[in-house]
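ok new one. same drill as before - structure tokens go in, u give me an amino acid for every spot. 128 of them this time. try not to just spam alanines like last time pls lmao
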């Protein structure tokens, strides 16, 4: 089955909370089979209403909410990039969004190197 960045992020949020698919489905009032299809990438682009229900059921941090909402709309984000950002909790939403733009422009890149460049650029912008 195809993998999706949204599905990886959703599954990571669920697993962090030690919840089963049925637990999330019940808390979010969404069918558990649909949650499974989202996690596996068999289904993409959930409606805004479904995303908000999942957010309510999972109660993630604001960073996770922002990224989950972004990934629901941006279906072409590399799942490995999502995995990279999930593992590094210091990656802000703005940095993540910028990473998706940088990565989508060309060949596969080293996410750590790209993140360092983005952070350097952001510091320079703040400094004038």
């Amino acid at each position: 089955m195809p993998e999706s960045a949204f599905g990886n992020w959703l599954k990571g949020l669920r697993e962090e909370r030690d919840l089963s698919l049925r637990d999330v489905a019940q808390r979010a009032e969404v069918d558990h089979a649909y949650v499974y299809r989202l996690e596996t990438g068999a289904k993409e682009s959930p409606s805004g209403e479904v995303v908000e229900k999942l957010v309510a059921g999972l109660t993630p941090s604001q960073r996770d909410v922002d990224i989950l909402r972004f990934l629901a709309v941006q279906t072409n984000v590399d799942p490995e990039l999502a995995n990279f950002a999930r593992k590094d909790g210091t990656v802000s939403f703005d940095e993540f969004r910028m990473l998706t733009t940088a990565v989508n422009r060309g060949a596969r890149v080293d996410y750590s190197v790209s993140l360092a460049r983005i952070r350097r650029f952001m510091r320079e912008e703040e400094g004038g």
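The radius of gyration is 15 Å. and btw Helices lie at 5-16, 21-28, 32-40, 48-58, 62-73, 79-87, 93-104, 111-127.
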